[in-house]
Design brief:
Strand content: 15-25%
CATH architecture: Alpha-Beta Barrel
CATH class: Alpha Beta
Strand order of the largest sheet: 2-3-4-5-6-8-13-15
Structural class: alpha/beta
Shape: globular
Distance between the termini: 6 Å
Number of helices: 15
CATH topology: TIM Barrel
Length: 464
Amino acid sequence: MFKDFSKDFWWGTASSGPQHEGAALEGGREPSIWDKYYEMSSERFFNEVGPQECGDFYHRFKEDLTIFKELGLTSYRTSIQWSRLLPFGTKTPNPDAVRFYNEVIDAMLELGITPFMNLHHFDMPWSHQEKGGWENRDTVKEFRYFAEQCFQLFGDRVEYWFTFNEPIVVPYIAYVGDHLYPNVMDMQRAMTVAYHTSLAHAEAMDAFRQGSYKGKAGIILNIAPSYPRSSNPEDVKAAHLADLFHNESFKEPVLKGTYSQELIKFMADHNMPLPILEGDDKIIAKGKVDILGVNYYAPQRVKVKDNLVNPKAPIRPGTFFDSYDMPGKKINPHRGWEIYPQGIYDCLIDIRDNYNNIETFISENGMGVENEEPFRNAQGFIEDSYRIDFIKDHLAQVHKAISEGCNCKGYHLWTFVDTWSWMNAYKNRYGYVELQLHNDKKRVIKKSGYWIKKVIEDSGFDYK
């Protein structure tokens, strides 16, 4: 059966400044939290490849965009690095950064590529992190100022803006997950970071609207549907709690304009009150988005706790529920994630039914594979049929959701060119295009790149 998509469907990819720009020590850029974390703990990074070893988009963006256009892709999400535009707490935009981002945006538009610009992709400037980062409420107003500068400088050409990418990630990996500075296990600090991030998002949305800029503004959320192990009430309750922490903590503020009263009460009941001040509800109300990006990779499978928690152990989300290893699930062994295409459909149906069917697009989806060299053919490119199958299965579910009335406008793969991926570095490859890291960062189109080109030309694909 042919899965057809509209002619104006957004076929694109996603990346980020800190993961693909490179040139970390050039152009007046300030070190971000990841640069400093690598200095402190390089042994935690796969093969000790740090954030400075990126794809060099800073110097090679014209090459990348030319290949992008060759594949027929029509929209590209990347980010403006706070640490490059306003380094070291300056209030005056860095002219080298302004030049660079102007050149990138202009090059995209000249090639008919629609820019989708994100403002924060886990990359706190170190000068702000030293002052407490998102634990410090002052960072909220600093982020608003950064957003205002971006809108003023580039808003005449960029029509799609996003405040944060996956805002739940920093609280999880830095404050209850031990994968990023400050490496603490403190649930209250984690949720303070999440709460201040919601305020910062709302302030940026207000700045966008106050400036009467053209286009739309929103946020990118990583949504992992929470499925209970069984219909047992305790399993259902556990899945609800997982959903509350991971999904609703940001979905409710940005889609309804209210902070979850259930989450506020839950934190207070566990002696971890959120840092709510009088008038915050009015700020949060300004954060309702025009458009929502949905990042979907895998579901959450959840069950009630099997064992009592050590009373001396730090509280974290896993204190209240356990992950459930469902028998027979399909899994990507390279990443350890379940492959469950129906989850992307469930995300879109939930937004249709419970959040006024707001305009959405799939802002990230993809399959990371370690060591694709065995799949290189005689012509020298990688035959990643496994990635094509993964994308087909997920796009089929997107198509089904759209046919049932979901307001989904596009699909962005993570990512275009193999991209540095936080502590995994280049262990897992995601791109339509191979990055030959040790061959002068040469770009080579994979089979999936040629496949998506045909899909775009045909506005769809055959599916079994």
